[in-house]
Amino acid sequence: MDYHESTIASAMDATETVPVQDSPVFSYISKLSPIQPVKEPAVSQGFTRLNSPPTVFTSPRLNPHGLSSSLKSSQFPPLPSTQLSGQDGGCWISITAADRSGKLDDGLGSGLNTCTEKGLDSSRLVDDQTESSIGCADRFLDDAVYMDSFNSNVSADSSLKYFDDIDQTPVRVNNSKESAGKLEKTHGARGNNKDASVDRRAIEINMMSRDGVIRADQGAKFESNLSENLAITNKHPEKFMTENSEAGQTGHVDDSSYLLPKSIEIYEGNKSSVETTGALDEPVQNEVQSNPMAAQPRGLHVSCLHFEDAQQKIITNRHAQNPSGIENSSRILTSSADREGPKSISLETPSTPISQIGMTQQMVYPRNRGNYSIKVPTPLGIGLHLNSVVSTTQVGAGETIIVKSSEKDTLSIWDEQQVTSLSSHLSENSKNSSYLSVLESILGIPDDSRHNNDYASVAANSATSVSTYNVKPLDNSMVCNPIEDQSTPVNKRKSNTGNADDAEEFKRSSPKRKRQAYKKKTSESNDDYSCKLCNCKKSKCLKLYCDCFAAGIYCAEPCSCQGCFNRPEYEDTVLETRQQIGSRNPLAFAPKIVQNNEDETQLSKSSIRHKRGCNCKKSMCLKKYCECYQAKVGCSDGCRCEGCKNVYGQKGECGVNKDVGMQCTDETTDGSSGEKLEMVESGNVLYHTELCNPHNLTPLTPSFQYSDQGKGASKAWFSSGKYFQSPESGPTFGAPCVRFPRSPRNLDNRDMISESSKEILDLDSFDNELDYHKAEAVNDFSFGHHGPSNMEHLAGKPNAREWESNLKVQPFSGSGHFSSASSLRWRVSPITPMAQFSGTKLPQAVDYYNDLHNIMEDDTPEILKGTPNPPNTVKVRSPNKKRVSPPHGHLRELGSRSSEGLRSARKFILQAVPSFPPLTPCVESKNGGQKKT
DNA sequence: GAGTTTGAAACT
DNA sequence: CAGTTTCAAACTC
């Protein structure tokens, strides 16, 4: 696999290391964390009461534990990171990155991350809290574009040291040339990690890694790899160890230019100590070698964060590269990596901030509406803020921190004074209040704007605060302009690290109040797709009645559900239930909002419809009772509504080609099923797009065609959180929200598709995206066949022009993954800023692909593996029937067009592919459907 | 905050 | 597959 070959070139040159420790920034950072990174168990306890978002395995909501801890920690800044680790086992992660030139790339707060590992026996309360946090994180991740990439171009040496022991031995992930390709296993494998916490940690790590990532476009790989590695390690420590030890030295130092995380330190408790040093890639590579797809799934959700990070990094880098004078970029919040090298700035801050960082990012993750390329989700907080702040430090004279507002992509330079002020504030306030408050104060954010009373405000606020403010650059004066609160629902759900008072207030608030606040905030922020909150009383949150469950996320603390089983601790139950439901209705967890476009040029709001349509009788589709209305999409012919007056489009007004469009078609592919699938054979490619996360609808632009050639379905994230999904598989989407836990047990879990079925598309944002990608043919999104050329694609024969136009995409092709068994094609509009995609989207797509690939490898019969892609693209039509029939009908059609063998294979695939929403933000490739074919 | 309405999901 | 029941969100008061 090229992937194997591709290695992360450590951009760091030890010799070039900047004496960070001596730098003002370092001092600043040191000041930031009042708490010494003592590893002590306590995290869970302290946070137990905190309301945190539910944890979802990976998606919309990050691992509860990690995030929760973060949130909690944020709420309790004073708590030392060590405390966090405690019984539950906390982990403290720091990442340091530097470019070869010795420049430190910093992401504030990036280096700090606290994750709490929830004990298996942790009380539910604790779980809830942690879950919430995690959930948020997951969500955040989902939004983020999947960064994992196979970009062979990016290579870096990395060494990963993993310490997992009761003593909270720090785990370090080092990425350095010297250590490149070397993986040491210093300690025995830890085999006791089987709980969800593992994933969480992985997530946390990923998040951290994100910060560590320097270059968005290239760093992605590193991050992804790192994430994957970490994830793998967490999940399968023993495997990780083995693989690493066995893995050859693949580390290559290719692009020195790429900034790479230099070191990541993780402190974890309650685990047998394990230290592994080696190329970060290796673990993944190993897995890939044995099973190319293996590594992918694990890191999926994590990757989301990467994207955002990458973007931030890009901005930062640009700025740094900018003659403006800021040449040395250093991370403000980097871990104590100094140990590893002079370049790294260690910022040992309280675990709280770290956690928050993770949280913040998720929370703040912006919905890319406009400029896709630059828009970066805003990191938040000092934990959050710092994170959100991408800073470049001018080591030397005065410390200059470049603060970027994710929202406006503006960079601000904090001069020494400002930094000092910030540091001072942090030092002074960290003990009593959240960093957020401090930042807010520093930033001059009005008090009334600082903390919202609502649920989200507590935690999310902090996130929002910084990110929400647009900092004006270069004037040395921080000008913070309140920006629309973009905190994501997830954020909202998560308690933020706001000041202690807020936390207390939040804790005291009744669930209902929280809920209301959350909803209010959600509605205000227009985060329709935000994490769901439920109030289930009888369904145990294990039925689709439950919004959370339906959305593929765990219930969060804000939920008012009773007897809830939709929690990480009941993962097995949840998965089982989901599988049951999925078996009954494969599309049950599929996004409900589908974009149908036959005509590339007509990608528009009109093409977005509710997959199944509504059945309103009295609401006239003017109230949220109507799913179409709720999703802010027009009703389609598929709706059975009466007296439709949907303001977004009435029934019969199908905006898109009615003749072809699925939304207007009542045909039922499967007679038995309500789901309508349309096969598109025409040159027009039907792209079945589930736009789960309108806000995140990012660029549709990078469309890719994927031909699994029988090897697997492909999932692609075109944009953060956005997926395209095959009708069968349903979910694609990139919901910012969660995901269900992937079952550690089987591959199927990987296929779980995050569902944002309830996510609402933001038409406006969608349009923006469209504009952004206008050049891009919509058709490309479809995996269907476009004719001979398409067939070529399917055959794995690259379209030179396409690839050329999208150099950034090429890495994929370059990676053996696509070249061999399958071809994944991205079609990017020439005009599309590649920066957007570089290292980010594609990687995600790749990851997804890999994931699928793994699945196929593992589960797919040989016969299927060789199966060429079906010539037809499957399109989902909004079913007229409530119940969606399984794709069988679809398959049948496909099958009719294909050999019997294929047919059987398809069926097999369907079975193999869980209907669950992916744990990670991934797009379920149409191939999934095609595979079936 | 309680009660009602609504329509999806689940069940038969 | 249609009809009914269950359920929880949305809505109203």
UniProtKB/TrEMBL annotation:
InterPro entries in the record: CRC, Tesmin/TSO1-like_CXC, TSO1-like
Pfam families tied to this protein: TCR
One Gene Ontology term of the molecular function aspect: DNA-binding transcription factor activity
Domain CRC: from-to ranges: 530-649
GO CC annotations on file: nucleus
Positions with biased composition (Basic residues): 509-520
Compartments, record wording: Nucleus
Disordered: annotated span: 481-528, 860-902
Main location: nucleus
Keywords of this entry: Nucleus
Family stated for the protein in its record: Belongs to the lin-54 family.
Name of the protein described by the UniProt record: CRC domain-containing protein
Protein's organism: Fraxinus pennsylvanica
Lineage: Eukaryota, Viridiplantae, Streptophyta, Embryophyta, Tracheophyta
